[in-house]
Design a protein that fits this description.
- Helix content is 40%, strand content 18%.
- A four-stranded mixed β-sheet has the order 1-4-3-2.
Length: 197
């Protein structure tokens, strides 16, 4: 299981820190027990056109014996590109500013990769819109009215939730897409991994 923490570090600084990166020690999301550091693993992150290796610490819960990866908010689960790059493409395409090819070319990512992001976002947009609109309302923002287009509704809801959360300590510095990654547990555009029952 992954725990996403609101990491304020730039990707370069996080990567440069390697195993020495300072991370929080949250409680276990399964049982609220104490977590201890338990090794970690290296994974790739692509940001600003460069692909580098970064260290992801793992934590283990003594009481329930479950281990958790501690992902920084600039990472989306099962994606190599930084959340800001993915969000920029999604915002451009779902927001109606242009197509996938120009958005992908602007960031230097493969067209097929960007197309995959947009398709996953479109598939999840109705649920994301409702979830982020509810979060925005809970944080005191004005209600977000559903748009005819689910993608536009989801973008508006993410923006409203981030706008409301930016009044809370630490969130404004992260930006909307790291916020969305943290709130979604890194699964903003993840495939549906639950089986129909």
């Amino acid at each position: 299981m992954a725990i996403v923490w609101p990491c304020p570090l730039p990707v370069d600084a996080y990567v440069a820190a390697g195993r020495e990166v300072e991370v929080p020690r949250p409680v276990c999301p399964s049982c609220a027990g104490p977590l201890v550091f338990w090794s970690g693993y290296w994974r790739h992150i692509r940001a600003a056109g460069r692909c580098r290796k970064m260290f992801v610490p793992r934590l283990r819960c003594g009481p329930c014996r479950v281990s958790h990866a501690l992902l920084p908010a600039f990472v989306l689960a099962w994606r190599v590109d930084a959340a800001e790059a993915i969000g920029t493409v999604i915002a451009g395409v779902a927001g109606g500013a242009g197509g996938v090819r120009p958005a992908a070319a602007l960031l230097g990512v493969p067209y097929t990769t960007a197309r995959g992001w947009c398709r996953r976002f479109a598939a999840r947009a109705p649920r994301l819109g409702v979830a982020f609109a509810a979060l925005a309302a809970e944080l005191g923002a004005e209600p977000v009215r559903p748009a005819a287009d689910a993608g536009a509704f989801a973008l508006a809801a993410i923006g409203a939730a981030f706008g409301a959360a930016s009044c809370l300590p630490g969130w404004l510095a992260l930006g909307a897409w790291r916020f969305a990654s943290a709130v979604s547990g890194g699964k903003l555009i993840a495939a549906n991994i639950t089986r129909p029952g």
